Amino acid sequence: MIRKAAAEETLELPVSLRSDTTEEFATESTTPHTASKPRAELDRLANRDLAKVLELGQKTFGEPVIPFTLDWVGEFLLGQNSRGPIARGLPSQPPVRYIDAESHRQGMVFGMCEYQITLRTGDCRVINLIQQTSQKCPSFTRDVWLVAERQFLALYYKLRRLEKARSQVVAPLMQDSLRERLWKNTIGVLTRNAASMKALGVAIRRGMLLRGEPGNGKTMAARWLKYEAEKRRLAWKSISIAHFRAAQHRCEIGELLSLGSPGIIFFDDFDELIRRREENHNSTDICTLLNELDGIDRRYGTVFLFASNLQWNEIDHALRRPGRIDLMIEFTKPNVELRRQLMEIHWSEILRRQIDIPLAVSQTEGMSFAELEELKTLLAMQHFDEEEIDWNRALAEFQSRRTETAKKPIGFGAI
């Protein structure tokens, strides 16, 4: 995520930079007796540039600095959890900006971008040097970051904590009552209620259907359940149509659907198989699935979790009866409250500061979570390219794309 470049060492370059510049110097040295020149020349240039960076950092911060590089994850986390960027020039020099009239974009080609991030030791300045380079004049400091030496470790551990928190799966955005029902009938059945159900002689088995149009949170809910199940050491198995077909060919459906310990079996994208037999040409497949589900060893608690885009009446009637699917949870397009929660809680502070949340919520009526995610991406791209956000322009671009997609022909007519 973050790598320090020591002053006494050659600056460690990203592979992309190292290969480009090495190749350039190699083309200038084609004779055998100069074969060792490119590497030595690269080392000299790298040390020269690093010395200039340290001198610049000392003047800017007024104290010793540490130069370092960030991968894209570290850069994303820093940008999402800091104030900025603020465009600044080098000492005694203004920033050099560019304007692209054709694409309506502007940005900076030479200068510094400053961020302010709060650490446990207090506020911290982090600077990213920006300079465009040419093939004739390569530079090894075009993607170097600077921070005060005394704050480097605190920044490092801050990014470590942010990355750890990022890897955790948050609860899906849905009505509280529906989320509670989802929890009680999956994780709750396998943990808190297991002993009571055993004492009552009830088989610990549950079938659930997550139903709704694509892009409205079914996958998000399944991902959250998987995370919560594994955190409690419950078994989890995801089964696709391809897995089912392969196991059916080998006569191993029973092994495919066995867990050996309490857990959840997730049937992902099984619409082709669970559709009504009147509309399904492979009716033997649903019979095979039902027979195997009924024959699963009941000594262990098992929850069958199906995710489907089908309407309830399109699903085979035999699968809909109690004991196979006991509960269906509908995932509809987010209402006003869920859209507001999405923007206020899950969108970056950088985006939230530059848009009118109530207006954005009202203007996104009828959008799915996936469509809202696409709109957020357009806003983020505006910020990266222009360092500012225009909500109306992003919304107009999104609507234009959606209209073009709806009109675009499919198949050979698109060629």
Automatic annotation (TrEMBL):
Residues 17-37 are annotated as: Disordered. GO terms for molecular function: ATP binding; ATP hydrolysis activity; metallopeptidase activity. It is an enzyme of class 3 (hydrolase). GO terms for biological process: proteolysis. The keyword Membrane does not apply. InterPro entries: 26S_Proteasome_ATPase, ATPase_AAA_core, P-loop_NTPase. Its EC number is 3.4.24.-. The keyword Hydrolase applies. Residues 208-332 form the ATPase AAA-type core domain. It comes from the Bacteria. Keywords: ATP-binding, Hydrolase, Metalloprotease, Nucleotide-binding, Protease. This is ATP-dependent zinc metalloprotease FtsH 3. It comes from Planctopirus ephydatiae.
